[in-house]
């Protein structure tokens, strides 16, 4: 342990010298480095604290063992006696009668001591690794973007350290318990040697045996749950493989017509998720095996947009709209204005994705702008679908029975309005000649993400997170602040995809400034969600939807701020055009949007069908998706940083291609894990949709009702 | 607040805020750029074939991996002699009724930038072999193969463009013949050349130039890396092992020109190109040195790499020698031109 401390201390001055003079300015790179060091210092402080704590316990132990011989127990005998319970006294007295001997407990200290040593060893190894990586000159630790990334990485590491400390405290607690056991055995020895204490014990026994008759307050009436408070009792539980989580509560039933609509949306979304990620998986494999096939319809350039568009318009958009059709009427405390319109939207968007995918594979596309690869007649179907959804939502809100418009509906309806504006701007030909096309492209591709997917999904979270936690959102005002700040800043940032290109310099700078402004809505949103969790964190371990929400919140914070980090000119130099962008878009579109959508879907489907998916497969889905995402993004981020540096050094282009091969392989592996997760998701959807069990639960009542009506008819 | 409880007012306000911002960051700048930018005087409109080739380029989604923008940062120098400017794109109009404008600037560089590919790699043979299967000419490439742009025919007609395919990549016994689409696509790639700025116009600067390494690192660092320069400028044809490709690109290993102790012809070929071995079936060599703006030090480094690799063992040249010869061959070229 001391070795670890020394190792770490020695790294700090080395870095500080390398970083430069203005050490205390928080705006400078060294200032940010300082923050990093402070974070590391805090961690180290905790480790040292734990070390001291351990030492204390050990020295206490030494002290006690020296006292044991000197009559410590005799002095405290009364205290010990009063802490005994009846059984203990009884058994002692019986033992005494039979003159049985007392066996001393075995010394078990070795186990926690070894565990402690192991932990200490790990702590020593961590800084040692950091030391090894530190002085490597090739990696640009000084770049502000990198520092931000490092800080974002440190957040989960700090979390890990906290868990470690809690575990360590547990071990210490066990250790202390063992000491108590020893004291007990000493006390036993004392008892066996001292006969006069028996009387005292007898007295104590009668005192302890006094009992209330348990009906002092209740009277003689038998217990009955007359208000129907106790529900959800599982009486035939099998041996669980994983911890049993709470099952969804039975809710007042939803209009079956609406339920059917929402389920169809979610079912279609799940299909497009499977389809889109199967394509994505195959496209990822092509980086490793470019000659996997030689079919024109399956070539990389044609399949890549099929993947992106299918998951954007098929999976995420249909998923969001499906949940929207549930939320908008619910928080308006009314019914959906028109179920029929909901079906039209669903059909139109599905048609757009089917036609669009076919067109792209056939080589018919809109000439190169990312995410607007569908030609306008296809995207028009999507647009009409959105117009119908918008009128439907607005009519629903107009006939709401609540006075205010709940914040979810702000986000959801604004998202639909903005998506229509964006699509119109992107497809209208009047301003697309020459660089106009590029300026619109930058605007479109990022507004699509921020104003459609992110805004809509936030609306979903503002409804389902409080619902799943069974408590109101922490601050309505923060939600409103985040809403306006998102519109103000997000709209500006599109052109950061074309930094250093020939679009006007001022426009690039505006985009960079806007990207920094995004800290405001992101911090506001994250704070709001985290504070909603306050006092309800314990529910996390007993719920299968909340882990999806928490993951989404973490990625909402880290993923969004990573976007800010990427926008600076210095980081753009290194990361632009590399796979870093791909990693980032997966962290956000997958880490944020998809995880939130899954959370909401696992929450809502049981309410619609009365049937839950097996908790085991939900857990497998969660972990495969999360681990897959990590395997996908982390190697890609590291590899592409190095690739960018190779380009800056003027290395031959093909060298960077060769260099990326292992990272592309990791990406394919991560992608495969994510894809397997989606298979489990599809299975879960299937299990939630198959209605057999719900039927069994309701059918006796239905039968009775039918026989009653039949009887009435006869009469 | 009353305002927020009225859905008409609330959503109109949100729409107006968003739309106003949209006007100022997207629509007005886009319209303004259309208004103030015109094509450069030297710009040549795409030929009919090149227009069709561009359609093939678009249909196959090449923009997913290939950018067409030289940014004003030093690392992009490898792809063009000057940063791209708005005027380079000003002449690009809506493709057709169905498809939007195709500036094809791209957002990802999984493959190299193509802004100046027509100058950097003008060889039709190279492009055709590369399109049939990129691994024929660049073994480490991960670009897709485009065999559907070719026909494999046993008896190729006389006027057919036959592509010389090494045995390892051949499918069947027939000859590989380029389709019209392949020839269009190559015509488009050949047309991608940076247009020179009109005289007197200052060239936009490349930013973030690499600082010269500190003296402490030793002088050797200052010299350009011949192997890396070879890989960037020469390797795709002459190959990493210097053996070229049979029937397309001559070997440098054991080449008389490379081994010649008088470097004049070698400098001449690098600066002015070469058609001397066309009758042997080799393609025309482009003026790589001129196209890629290589300076005397870089050319000397490349020449010395070629003169001392793969078993070659010829006398090295100095940058000063090369500088003089460059001036000499430039005069020759000008004289020839006149």
UniProtKB/TrEMBL annotation, chain A:
Transmembrane feature ranges: 31-52, 109-130, 145-169, 257-275, 310-331, 343-364, 376-398, 410-429, 449-466, 473-493, 505-531, 543-563, 583-604, 616-638, 664-686
Name this polypeptide is given: Cytochrome oxidase subunit I
InterPro entries named among the record's database cross-references: Cyt_c_oxase-like_su1_dom, Cyt_c_oxase-like_su1_sf, Cyt_C_Oxase_1
Record-linked Pfam families: COX1
SUPFAM superfamilies assigned to the protein according to its UniProt record, in alphabetical order: Cytochrome c oxidase subunit I-like
Any Gene Ontology biological process: aerobic respiration
Keywords recorded for this protein, A-Z: Electron transport, Membrane, Respiratory chain, Transmembrane, Transmembrane helix, Transport
Gene Ontology terms, MF aspect: cytochrome-c oxidase activity; heme binding
Organism for this UniProt entry: Deminuibacter soli
N-terminal signal peptide: none
Gene3D superfamilies linked: Cytochrome c oxidase-like, subunit I domain
GO CC terms, sorted: membrane
PANTHER family assigned to the protein according to its UniProt record, in alphabetical order: CYTOCHROME C OXIDASE SUBUNIT 1, CYTOCHROME C OXIDASE SUBUNIT 1 HOMOLOG, BACTEROID
TrEMBL record, chain B:
MF (Gene Ontology): electron transfer activity; heme binding; metal ion binding
InterPro entries: Cyt_c-like_dom, Cyt_c-like_dom_sf, Cyt_c_oxidase_monohaem-su/FixO, Cytochrome_c-type_DH
UniProt keyword Metal-binding present: yes
Record keywords: Heme, Iron, Metal-binding
Domain Cytochrome c residue range list: 48-193, 221-333
Protein name: Cytochrome-c oxidase
Pfam families with a match to the protein in the record: Cytochrome_CBB3, FixO
Entry keyword Iron: yes
